[in-house]
TrEMBL record:
It comes from Candidatus Collierbacteria bacterium RIFOXYA2_FULL_46_10. Keywords: Ribonucleoprotein, Ribosomal protein, RNA-binding, rRNA-binding. One of its GO terms (biological process) is translation. The gene is rplY. This is Large ribosomal subunit protein bL25. GO terms for cellular component: cytosolic large ribosomal subunit. The keyword Lyase does not apply. InterPro entries: Rbsml_bL25/Gln-tRNA_synth_N (IPR020056), Ribosomal_bL25/Gln-tRNA_synth (IPR011035), Ribosomal_bL25_b-dom (IPR020057), Ribosomal_bL25_C (IPR037121), Ribosomal_bL25_long (IPR001021), Ribosomal_L25_dom (IPR029751), Ribosomal_uL5_bac-type (IPR020930). CDD domains: Ribosomal_L25_TL5_CTC. The lineage of its organism: Bacteria, Candidatus Collieribacteriota.
Length: 233
């Protein structure tokens, strides 16, 4: 794995004064760990953003805090961003013991081209990251997933197929758990056409305002007439 280096200064600005730091291109941060007292620090934004993009949360960083006797081996344990601009607002650094294994989430990256995609199918990443356990210096920055063998629908890659140094890194997944699978694209439902009910063969639809005709051979019923009263003689 790659090693990175950053320089920081102790931070005294808190509360509203932190906004002024950001305007000056400085990011507020904290460093903590089992063997040190938590400190408020600040780091220049440009090198910090570049390191975060490359290192992520799994690469070991040698963090030198001005005034401290030695550099701190740290991992980025978390950070916050502006929800609108995505500008970096704050970072937490976790000092680690290089002799003690730690856990981290490592991103997965598909590499190569799956033949099944050329046939119109889709490649589905069921997991974008996996949890691993290793010594801090052995944590991989990323785990690549070679998809060039996926040639048909249902073809997949399992956790046991992932390539990394298993003598140093332990994967927290069952061997048979799927990581990537080829699926057919979703089919759009066909529109349902509802036909109007037509009259039976040989039967004409009644004209508007016309009553039901009597069946063949059946006399029409006369209309009921009121009996007129007879004149008295």
């Amino acid at each position: 794995m790659s090693n990175y280096a950053l320089t920081a200064q102790k931070r005294t600005a808190t509360g509203r004064k932190v906004k002024a730091l950001r305007r000056d291109g400085i990011i507020p941060a904290n460093i903590f760990g089992k063997k040190i007292t938590s400190q408020s620090i600040q780091v220049a934004a440009k090198p910090l953003v570049e390191t975060l993009k490359k290192a992520g949360e799994t690469a070991l960083i040698n963090l030198t805090v001005e005034g401290d006797k030695a550099a701190h081996p740290v991992l980025i344990s978390g950070y916050s961003q502006n929800p609108v601009t995505n500008a970096l607002l704050h970072v937490d650094f976790h000092e680690v013991d290089l002799t003690v294994k730690t856990t981290a989430m490592v991103p997965l990256k598909a590499i190569g081209e799956a033949p099944a995609i050329a046939a119109g199918n889709i490649l589905v990443m069921l997991k974008n990251e996996v949890e691993v356990e290793a010594l801090p210096a052995d944590l991989p920055d990323i785990i690549e997933v070679d998809v060039t063998s996926l040639a048909e629908v249902g073809a997949h890659i399992l956790a046991k197929d992932l390539k990394f140094d298993r003598t140093k890194v332990k994967l927290d997944l069952e061997d048979e758990e799927q990581i990537v699978v080829i699926q057919e694209p979703a089919k759009e439902p066909e529109p349902v056409v509802v036909a109007e009910e037509a009259p039976a063969e040989g039967e004409a639809a009644p004209a508007e305002g016309e009553g039901t005709k009597p069946a063949e051979g059946e006399a029409a019923k006369p209309e009921d007439k009121k009996e007129e009263p007879k004149a008295e003689k």
